[in-house]
Amino acid sequence: MSFTSPAPISPSPVSASAPVPPVVLNPGTPPILNVPTPEPADVPAWAAEHRHTLRGLVTEHGAVLVRGLGLADVGQVGAVFTEVAPNLMADTETFAPRRAHAPGVYSSTVWPANQPMCMHHELSYTHSPPGLMLMACLTAPAEGGATALADSAAVLDALPPELVQRFEGEGWLLTRTYNDDIGASWTEAFGTEDRAVVEEYCRANAVEFAWQSDGGLSTRQRRPAVVRHPATGRRCWFNQIAFLNEWTLAPEVREYLVDVYGPDALPFNTRFGDGDPIGEDVVELINTVYTEHTVREPWQSGDLMLIDNIRTAHSREPFEPPREVLVAMAAPHAPHSFPPAPTASSEGSTR
What we know:
Elements: E1 32-34, H1 43-49, H2 51-61, E2 63-67, H3 74-84, E3 100-102, E4 105-107, E5 117-120, E6 130-139, E7 143-144, E8 149-151, H4 152-158, H5 161-170, E9 172-178, H6 186-190, H7 195-204, E10 208-211, E11 217-223, E12 226-228, E13 235-237, H8 251-261, E14 268-272, H9 280-292, E15 294-295, E16 304-308, E17 312-316, E18 319-320, E19 324-332
Parallel strand pairs: 1-2
Antiparallel strand pairs: 2-16, 3-4, 4-19, 5-17, 6-16, 6-19, 7-18, 8-15, 8-17, 9-11, 9-14, 10-11, 12-13
Helix pairs in contact: 1-3
């Protein structure tokens, strides 16, 4: 992403019918839309009136940070989210717990404030991932906590061709062992305590599963690492290969998890699509390329951010609490998957 041309803004409050000013494009930051502040009651109406403009900006730029709306509470944010994207998605297969504020409106992922969440595409391991992410900041942290962005097509172009060719040919494999200690439990991830419902979901969404003797659940799913953008047709690096890999974890965290769960039963890990382990050097390379293509803008309380989840990866930087960011997902991408990975059974079992 590279951006130019600052744009003027108007500081005075206006009605919902005010026109949208030009987007601010500066190097190193995401596109920023500084809008004249509507009256609080008019904010959802403003979002409804400018829905097509906002969605068009996301398609054009990959993301847009809307500043000036003054979003102040959960109800207002939920109303804005549903005006911008009327059919919000449920958060299923989440890797870490979220708090549901309303149907389709969630807290940000529960993750230690002092640890970064590396670049990823939300729920890229699901059978039908969201095409649009919506975020709203109610409380900005005093330090850190930016939701940074990276253009996935540019990242793809910067990766070694031989690595891209392998991942494009065989996809990537996500393995998960759900437990009550690390990350989301299977009841949290699937929103049910009914094993039959989980099994039905897994079969319908190309997820291999196995129930453990202690009541836990293990799953495997093979997904494409490169997809074509539904609007532009451009190839995009679209996955969570590095983010959910053991080598992205802090060394002390990885050592603890391996010691407790063993190398083959980590709460989550990624592999090449044929089941081969992904080396630390590969993970480091991917994260380095992401860093080289990262843009960021610190949150301000009241901000709204819209992200094309296929074209644009996002991360969360460490911060000093408090920080309150609400999240929603919409526009599910066409179902995508690979055949089951070698040596894994596609039927559920108990062992």
